[in-house]
Write a structure and sequence with these properties.
Mean pLDDT: 94
CATH class of the domain at 26-220 and 258-265: Alpha Beta
CATH architecture of the domain at 26-220 and 258-265: Alpha-Beta Barrel
Shape: globular
Order of helices and strands: EEEHEHEEEHEHEHEHEHHHH
Low-confidence stretches: 1-9
Strand content: 5-15%
Structural class: alpha/beta
Strand order of the largest sheet: 3-4-5-8-9-10-11
Helix content: 25-40%
CATH superfamily of the domain at 26-220 and 258-265: NADP-dependent oxidoreductase domain
């Protein structure tokens, strides 16, 4: 096992290794999620815009080359912050965004998979991110009120028009992934998954077998992971790491197609998370942590 260094100065996401999305888009396996950069309830501007910008720039300095966002974060705020902080983008930086929600108010999320909404959302993301093509556009949710073929068809049209490179899905079951794959290639799946919430284990197994990137959202189960007690705390103390770092290392150890996107609005927490890329858990430690699920 490799202990996390006491300083994060030399931390780099490169230590997490790489995976390939859609056969041609290779990124490091530790990314950054931008949702926490917005205001309370994922609504409005951040309390401190300067700190939000600093976090994004520091993430890239630490070797992160995959940033996850969505038009619904803010709404629109996270995408604008990313462009303000990082455009013109460094070579190799992948910004993945999502479409499929409307945001009528703080903490309120309304699924909308109508083709016209998805097309408008994509156009908006292109403008805010200041790009000609979105490398990975993920359907935020499959809308049960709209035929799946219509939702995916809209994304495929955008892809054929050169506005989208790869198509991803979010919060789906294996059967839904298979249905969509009969229509088009699926580059990624983004489902809720972490050390204590593993309802998407079958989806993870499927993605691993099929070579589909699995992006666990809520990877640190904020507020649910024990801070110092139990198996997680004991493992962290033994390794000289934090519980959050061990939780990230556990995710990375679960599958070569795993791409955690731990988010934060704090540079110190960001550096701590990225340092987890260098942490390796042996099989015995993985088994101890498995028992927490």
């Amino acid at each position: 096992m490799t202990e996390v260094e006491s300083t994060t100065a030399a931390a780099s996401a490169a230590a997490s290794g790489t995976l390939t999305i859609g056969g041609d888009l290779t990124v490091r396996r530790l990314g950054f999620g931008s949702m926490q950069l917005t205001g309370k309830g994922v609504w409005g501007e951040p309390a401190d815009r300067g700190k939000a910008i600093a976090v994004l720039r520091r993430a890239v300095e630490l070797g992160v080359d995959f940033i996850d966002t969505a038009d619904a974060y803010g709404p629109e705020v996270a995408e604008r912050l990313i462009a303000e902080a990082l455009h013109p983008y460094p070579a190799g930086l992948v910004i993945a965004t999502k479409a499929g929600f409307e945001r009528p108010g703080p903490g309120v999320w309304v699924v909308n998979g109508r083709p016209e909404h998805l097309r408008a959302a994509c156009e908006g993301s292109l403008r805010r991110l200041r790009v000609d093509r979105i490398d990975l556009l993920q359907l935020h949710r499959i809308d049960p009120k709209v035929p799946v073929a219509d939702q995916i068809g809209a994304l495929v049209e955008l892809q054929r028009a050169g506005k989208v490179r790869h198509i991803g899905l979010s919060e789906v079951k294996v059967a839904q992934i298979k249905t969509v794959r009969r229509m088009t290639a699926v580059g990624s799946v983004q489902n809720k998954y972490n050390l204590v919430e593993r309802g998407s284990s079958k989806v993870l197994d499927y993605c691993t077998r099929e070579g589909i990137a699995f992006i666990p959202w809520y990877p640190l189960a904020t507020g649910k992971l024990p801070k110092s007690g139990g198996p997680l705390g004991r493992v962290a103390r033994r390794l000289g790491a934090t519980p959050a770092q061990v939780a990230i290392a556990w995710l990375l150890g679960k599958s070569p197609m795993m791409l955690p996107i731990a988010g934060t609005s704090n540079v110190g927490h960001l550096e701590e998370n990225v340092a987890a890329a260098a942490l390796r858990l042996d099989p015995a430690t993985m088994e101890v942590l498995e028992a927490m699920g």
